[in-house]
Specification:
There is one protein chain. By secondary structure, the chain is an all-alpha fold. The chain has one domain: AhpD-like. 84% of the residues lie in helices and 0% in strands. The protein has 4 helices and no strands. The protein is globular, with a radius of gyration of 11 Å.
């Protein structure tokens, strides 16, 4: 779902799925791999926006 929401340019839904993935034990490295593939298949602009959102979600998770 992370890749689908990022590729479809749905940032709010992407944020929700990233939060769920982290809560369920997904590691930052795994999210990074998904976003790397996103860049290759969907383009750099989609991947950049998704990466920014992922960084925000991971930073929020570390502070709580």
């Amino acid at each position: 779902m992370i890749a689908m929401m990022a590729a479809a340019a749905h940032p709010n839904e992407l944020r929700v799925h990233l939060q769920g993935a982290v809560k369920n034990g997904c590691r930052a490295e795994e999210i990074q791999e998904v976003l790397l593939l996103l860049a290759m298949y969907c383009g750099i602009p989609s991947a950049n926006e998704a990466h920014r959102i992922a960084v925000d979600v991971l930073a929020e998770r570390q502070t709580t």
